[in-house]
């Protein structure tokens, strides 16, 4: 690796730490500032922060790698994600922004669930927080695996050392600046990812005289487009598209909607966010497709398909640009890890420590506890990430399904069902999470495989949770009058702000 590439990366690291220091001075004196940036985040930062925290290392490594291995079937995952993100902006973002503020200024998703039922210290708050910590620890480990692979592949460093470097930088600015640091760094990182995912496939395509020749080389390894589309089974199609269902329950994404300045800014955030997402997903798929053709044309052996973006960065660009592109991968990895660490920390402090301890703590003490939480989750995730054989996309898909099934149906019911009951909410969370875990790990098929080999665990988890919420609410007694009043008030405030 040329020294100029190291210079580019060093500049990137310094910039991220500088943003963390700036945010530390601006917004971390109280819990609201540390967790939600004081609900003053602009639509531009909201959009790119939501996108960057969503499209983690799997965007530049996992998705191109899936296209490289499987081919055009990967497009269905992309379509599911685009549809899910759009619907999330339309039906979740406005109501969640208003409802969390009306519900006694709820700062976290578990706190919102509890305050929606006027039970701030209820079991649902702790259950939701525990699920967040468990699945985000798994999710964070996926980002660290990507960081370790990056430093090993690009710099020839030891995998474990690369993991530690990734962890060290992202934990530093998250500890310092909280939500504002995470959002601002996500904005910068989103811009870097946007440029990189246009630049890499376009430059790699220049190695071919025309599109037909490129596709002929690609078809040496993957089925033709028409054949691939016809060969997809119904269950395979549903599994791929169902990734979009996960958006409704991803705490690190929907918390961005809670922090935006006002409801009227959501439309602008949607337009920016969906445009960014469309371009970056197409760029990621194109990187994988051109990568197949390039590998076949030049008889290049690639031991790990998830490193095709890294290989292009090193082979096709000037060292300074190469360093910038590698920084784009780090940007994707770090933006998601930082968001997950902060949400996990928020749940540990606000929803577990504050509820269980029942002790009054100052704002300064709670912020300090939040920083301890960031460090604790990071350490556990790094231990899990030491297994370098883990697939980035596989780890992400498991955690994505866990959140989507546990929280997605409940978020929708909480925002749109007036007579939702506290008991139904608890049953929905537990049944959704349990179904996903059973689907992933229970070896119930004849060959010892789990049910996830048949259909993506998101689908049964989401359906079971939805059915459990609906049936339990129907059988349970009506919610208290205060709960209904808060629901109605949120509807009136939303109508006024629109």
Automatic annotation (TrEMBL):
Q: Name one GO cellular component term.
A: plasma membrane
Catalysed conversion reaction: L-proline(in) + Na(+)(in) = L-proline(out) + Na(+)(out)
Give the molecular function GO annotations: L-proline transmembrane transporter activity; proline:sodium symporter activity; sodium ion binding
Concerning CDD domains, the annotation shows:
SLC5sbd_PutP
* Cited Pfam families: SSF
Q: Give the way it sits in the membrane.
A: Multi-pass membrane protein
Q: Its GO biological process terms? A: proline transport
What keywords sit in the KW lines? Amino-acid transport, Cell inner membrane, Cell membrane, Ion transport, Membrane, Sodium, Sodium transport, Symport, Transmembrane, Transmembrane helix, Transport
NCBIfam families, A to Z: Na_Pro_sym, sss
- Family to which this protein belongs: Belongs to the sodium:solute symporter (SSF) (TC 2.A.21) family.
Quote the function comment for this protein.
Answer: Catalyzes the sodium-dependent uptake of extracellular L-proline.
Q: What is this protein called?
A: Sodium/proline symporter
Q: Report the source organism.
A: Shewanella colwelliana (Alteromonas colwelliana)
Lineage of the organism: Bacteria, Pseudomonadati, Pseudomonadota, Gammaproteobacteria, Alteromonadales
